[in-house]
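[Discussion] Sanity-checking designs against the backbone

I'm trying to build intuition for which residues belong where. Below is a structure token string of 398 positions. I'd appreciate it if someone posts a full sequence so I can compare it with mine line by line.
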């Protein structure tokens, strides 16, 4: 039996598009929330067209999963009134339009609070709701750049690179979700709603470890370092005899000693040897990696991984999607599942994370058709008659 999930009974109105806001909706929907996605009539979320596709998006089924889709024109007063009716029956509103847009649509937090004092309004933007940049357009890539991530990504002899995913949007969505659930806990104690203000650049900045503090106190600027972290050694990608690449992370003293023993160099871990300490290995990082590479190049990948596993040294292959589908760990934990889909029949996609022991989330359906749940939401939830729904459809409101 599919679990209802820990957020069963929580209703979320998702009025966003692309990825930052919608991914927050996905995270809550995966855990059982009733997420009603509000989309513009006739067009819908651009994610319905994005992603590798032969005319049908393969991205939308993932980001739209577990949500109900309704169409609603928020630019029209009648659409705004319907939105407020939805707000009155909901717990959380998620929006990720440019700061000030909801105010122009007469849907400020103050107005939402008038119809529902306990409403939690989650606002995801490039730069937040305040400050001199608040009104600027801000995509995830800009937040990644300003938050410090882009500068340190890539090889040192090239221009800054980017991650192959929309990491800035996803980080903002995750922080927005943490904020939403934190605010929900406060609301459950006090009855008070509030605004959750999640910016992309600050969500990226929050992940930058001690980058700012190192500059502030030591004048140290982190730079692009390719496959390594400076002074963290050994931790790199190493070649094998059969031309595979294995990532080995043995940068802790006790772990590096086990690796050196496998390499028949236990003396490198002896007290007083430079490689016995974190600082010493970091100071000679490049040469140490050359020594390890020379050794791994004499061992085939499978044997090397077995050696690492037996010796307690973290190591693994660099996976592509095909590798994930074949891996027994992925299979045992159902990290990737096959789910029914109205367009493709079935689709494989990543499962819900994290796993809860008593009330696990689940994938109940993939991204719905545009407006698929209009009758369900406007009829059953708001009580609009079929004739009234037809009139609103003809007027372009829904």
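Best answer:
Here's mine. Compare freely.
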């Amino acid at each position: 039996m599919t679990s209802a999930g820990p957020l069963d009974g929580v209703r979320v109105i998702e009025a966003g598009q692309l990825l930052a806001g919608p991914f927050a909706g996905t995270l809550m929907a995966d855990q059982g929330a009733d997420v009603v996605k509000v989309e513009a009539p006739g067009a819908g979320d651009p994610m319905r067209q994005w992603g590798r596709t032969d005319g049908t998006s393969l991205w939308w089924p993932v980001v739209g999963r577990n949500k109900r889709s309704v169409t609603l024109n928020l630019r029209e007063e009648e659409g705004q009134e319907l939105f407020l009716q939805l707000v009155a029956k909901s717990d959380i509103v998620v929006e990720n339009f440019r700061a000030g847009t909801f105010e122009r649509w007469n849907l400020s937090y103050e107005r939402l609070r008038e119809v529902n004092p306990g409403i939690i309004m989650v606002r995801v933007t490039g730069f937040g709701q305040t400050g001199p940049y608040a009104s600027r357009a801000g995509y995830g890539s800009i937040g990644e750049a300003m938050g410090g991530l882009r500068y340190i990504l890539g090889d040192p002899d090239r221009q800054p690179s980017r991650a192959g995913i929309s990491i800035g949007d996803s980080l903002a969505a995750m922080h927005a979700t943490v904020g939403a659930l934190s605010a929900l806990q406060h609301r459950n104690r006090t009855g008070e709603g509030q605004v959750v203000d999640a910016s992309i650049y600050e969500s990226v900045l929050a992940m930058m470890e001690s980058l700012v503090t190192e500059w502030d106190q030591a004048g140290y600027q982190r730079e692009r370092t390719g496959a390594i972290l400076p002074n963290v050694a050994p931790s790199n990608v190493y070649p094998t005899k059969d031309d595979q690449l294995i990532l080995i992370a043995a940068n802790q003293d006790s772990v590096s000693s086990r690796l050196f023993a496998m390499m028949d160099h236990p003396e490198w871990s002896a007290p007083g040897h430079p490689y016995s300490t974190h600082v010493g290995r970091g100071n000679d990082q490049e040469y140490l990696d050359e020594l390890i590479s020379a050794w791994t190049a004499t061992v085939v990948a499978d044997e090397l991984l077995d050696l690492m596993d037996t010796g307690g040294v973290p190591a693994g292959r660099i996976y592509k999607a095909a590798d994930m589908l074949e891996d027994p760990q992925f299979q045992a934990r159902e990290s990737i599942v096959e789910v029914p889909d109205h367009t493709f029949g079935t689709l494989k996609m990543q499962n819900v994370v994290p796993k809860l022991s008593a009330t696990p989330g689940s994938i109940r359906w993939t991204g719905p058709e545009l407006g698929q749940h209009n009758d369900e939401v406007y009829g059953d939830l708001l009580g609009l008659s079929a004739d009234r729904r037809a009139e609103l459809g003809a007027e372009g409101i829904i």
